């Protein structure tokens, strides 16, 4: 029983982190066609923010809840800066933004390596996350449950924001038809910036959760970016529902494969699965039917 | 795109050949000649990237995979040649009685190794390319999938210490098809082979660019739907370019091993694949000489600055990506054309061909 339930629970937690990382990616890719390869580094910025907040607020019980909104804003501002300085000049060449942001990610990673100790920094878990939850005989660490709850809250907040606020309506309008949205008087430039802020901010929140589960160091973003993109590809671009299902599926699949084989073989197998899946559904799990030629 | 006269490109390749094959061995010390050989290996891979990305619009971010196929095929053969009848040293390290892994056995044969260097990348690239292009997976999807493959392969090699040497890689090769590698004369010969292969690859893509296939490839990059409506299958066109570029990466990898003397997962992973792209972007992705020259320049930066000032080199590399892609999408090779165009008509900028190409893909 343990062998069956443990990968499921661990994988769900991993999927929740992937979901947090993929949400922002899916938002910016769906709306602007921009692939932000520095997204993983924004996640890293969120994790380092959690560490810095802990230097100011000594009590780890309090510092993590404070770090969540702070990381959202800090990573969001980095995203906004990136959009204003570089990406806004490149909307006509979306594939090239991928390479520009590769350059940005190299610089951010190197800066983190030089600012912080190279072996990484410790982020202390709050006391209320120390325990385990006994599920069918498996002692499930509470911090994994925390990342699932955090992901659920973020998804609900994002969905509500997209659905009920006027900003959300503008974002959805721009995703569906940029030209028509612009003709209707929506400033797509403002919408783009806001989306980039929100997407990068979500990566920052993911970083706080990641800092509680794995190490916080300059290389942590690298391991998330590829997996997060595979989630976006499998889920369908700009689709919340698809992204959620795909993130959970990728997380659990990786976890089971890693349990049965080795972590590295699991990556190869997951890669093959995504290729096979794209054979069946090249546009991802959830698609919007259009008449455009893609 | 204006067509340059064939003799300009041909004399360019000729000049390149004279510089690499005649001038460099006379002028450079053995150490630098060996370094130049290493850059040539990257340049061979870069010429392939130029074909797939610059002309075909397929951003191949995982050429390290094909580089690895060639490099590890060659390294396995050289390791077995060095070990002779015994089991390679690193395998015995963990288990003195370890048998030779099954997939190592055929690499004893010279013929099989050479065949593997050519066939393995062709097989992998054609099956992967067929699966992806036929389902019209393109743009960023394609780029990230190839990058994911490079990450997966590097992790796989890192974790199989007993079979592939893991992170320490394969090294200490004594012989290269019977020639003693320590001998400077033989090192020179290996360099000359690599340089000659680079010239051959340049000549091959020059022929491809001139052919009907080259026109079709550029047409597919610029307006894939239009090519489809004209009755061609863009998937086949892209497939051929992808397979040729994979083959070139594999050849570069195979020559990398005797020149550098070691192959590790770090040389083929995501970072290495991105480094290969950097050279191509820097030199000019769609031009004939840009990718090779850019790769040599970036390779030189990597091995000189990268070892003396590694922190600064990473910043320079990052800035290189940002500045070149932002301001010079066609790389340094587009500078002369820009300059002359600006002089002829100061108020008109030359329209960069690549911008038009990607407008097509603007909607995901």
TrEMBL record, chain A:
The keyword Transmembrane helix applies. GO terms for cellular component: plasma membrane. This is Branched-chain amino acid ABC transporter permease. It comes from the Bacteria. Pfam families: BPD_transp_2 (PF02653). GO terms for biological process: amino acid transport. It is a multi-pass membrane protein. Its main location: membrane. It is found in: Cell membrane. The keyword Transmembrane applies. CDD domains: TM_PBP1_LivH_like (cd06582). The chain crosses the membrane at residues 12-30, 42-60, 66-86, 98-116, 144-162, 194-213, 225-250, 257-280. It comes from Actinoplanes siamensis. NCBIfam families: urea_trans_UrtB. GO terms for molecular function: transmembrane transporter activity. Keywords: Amino-acid transport, Cell membrane, Membrane, Transmembrane, Transmembrane helix, Transport. Belongs to the binding-protein-dependent transport system permease family. LivHM subfamily.
TrEMBL record, chain B:
Keywords: Cell membrane, Membrane, Transmembrane, Transmembrane helix. It is found in: Cell membrane. InterPro entries: ABC_transp_permease, ABC_transptr_urea_perm_UrtC, LivM-like. GO terms for molecular function: branched-chain amino acid transmembrane transporter activity. It is a multi-pass membrane protein. GO terms for cellular component: plasma membrane. It comes from the Bacteria. It holds the Pfam family BPD_transp_2. The chain crosses the membrane at residues 6-29, 36-54, 60-80, 112-133, 189-209, 239-263, 275-300, 312-335. PANTHER family: HIGH-AFFINITY BRANCHED-CHAIN AMINO ACID TRANSPORT SYSTEM PERMEASE (PTHR30482), SLR1201 PROTEIN (PTHR30482:SF4). This is Urea ABC transporter permease subunit UrtC. The lineage of its organism: Bacteria, Bacillati, Actinomycetota, Actinomycetes, Micromonosporales.
